[in-house]
Design goal:
The chain has 330 residues and is an alpha/beta fold. The protein contains 12 helices and 12 strands. The strands form 3 sheets. It has a 7-stranded parallel beta sheet. Strands 1-2-3 form a 3-stranded antiparallel beta sheet, with helices on both faces.
Length: 330
């Protein structure tokens, strides 16, 4: 059952967290936090998403704050380092924020950059992680099939664990998977899962070797677990640049899946200058604990968004709540 909208708004706090480096074109991450019977929860769809897409994120926030988590199978989650599309000489400093991480996810295909920039960045990561380290790259749909084939060929010598969402559509993913099969580089689907009207379409089409699963875009932990069970593919649980509250949601999802063969993208609290808790879910020895962080009132005050942004987000909550309410009534 849904909580009343008034119950959501009563505890809602809108925050703006400064980031250590630009990521996805932003340097400040905004989010709404609510306190439910199960603890603090988060609603943080990116600002460009429409209400229909953002409503899934609100459903996830309600799920985590108002419903008990499923049984947990592990109490710590191994995580990867996340390397934004920075210059190669900045990689070493970023890796220091992820102590003990054996895996790095490297952003590539950044608008305004070249494949040579990507190669230099990935080479720097390989040099620092050594031959035993694991490197995965993420193009965020920004290559066409020919560009993806060329780029994967150039980056494959760095022993890639997988390539995440090299192209935009399911058909393109299937084609690039076919073209690059001889290189033995798995293809992972992210946007084709979390932004799709049918998150299982990519699995049914045989267009990916594994799925990137994020709790908020998929409507919450319980919804994501159903998708994982039906897809039948290996998964990586990841975050969407969440505060430690949203990362905790992802960690609870990762702790509940039957198989967890890959390090997860849940170390992204390291991307913030400040967080909403005195004990942020930062990686220690390459992993984070499965806990609900205690939110600091002082930090909520210090990180509060200005009045205009607060009003914008609360209006968004109201609109998305109506969509969630309508879907629940069907």
């Amino acid at each position: 059952m849904l909580p009343e909208l008034a119950d959501l708004l009563k505890t809602a706090r809108v925050v703006a967290l400064p980031m250590t480096a630009k990521f996805r074109g932003i340097t400040v991450r905004e989010a709404v936090l609510f306190e439910g019977p199960e603890g603090w929860t988060e609603f943080s769809p990116f600002v460009e998403y429409d209400d229909a897409e953002a409503a899934h994120w609100l459903h996830a926030a309600i799920d985590f704050g108002w419903h008990a988590a499923p049984p947990l199978l592990r109490d710590r989650i191994p995580v990867n380092a996340t390397i934004p599309a920075v210059a190669a000489d900045s990689v070493a400093e970023i890796l220091t924020r992820y102590p003990g991480a054996r895996t790095a996810k490297v952003k590539v295909a950044e608008p305004g950059q070249t494949l040579a920039d990507d190669v230099a960045r990935v080479r720097a990561v390989r040099d620092l992680l050594g031959p035993e380290g694991r490197i995965r790259i993420d193009a965020n749909t920004l290559w066409n099939v020919d560009e993806a084939e060329h780029a994967i060929h150039a980056l494959a010598p760095f022993d890639l664990e997988y390539v995440e969402q090299p192209c935009a559509t399911v058909d393109e993913l299937a084609e690039i998977r076919r073209r690059t099969k001889y290189m033995d580089v798995p293809i992972a689907a992210d946007e084709s899962v979390r932004k799709a009207s049918d998150p299982l379409a990519v699995a049914r089409a045989g267009a990916a070797d594994l799925l990137i699963v994020k709790a908020q875009p998929l409507g919450g932990i319980h919804s994501a677990l159903r998708i994982v069970a039906e897809a039948g593919l290996p998964i990586v649980v990841s975050s969407a640049i969440d505060t430690s509250v949203g990362i905790a949601m992802g960690a609870h999802l990762a702790a509940a899946v039957p198989r967890l063969d890959f390090d997860c993208g849940l170390g992204t609290a390291a991307m913030f200058v400040e967080d909403v808790t005195d004990e942020p879910l930062l990686p220690v020895d390459g992993s984070i604990p499965v806990v609900r962080p205690s939110v600091s009132g002082a930090r909520l005050d210090a990180l509060a968004a200005d009045d205009d942004r607060r009003d914008w987000w609360l209006d968004r909550v109201r609109r998305c709540y109506r969509l969630v309410e309508r879907a629940a009534a069907l």
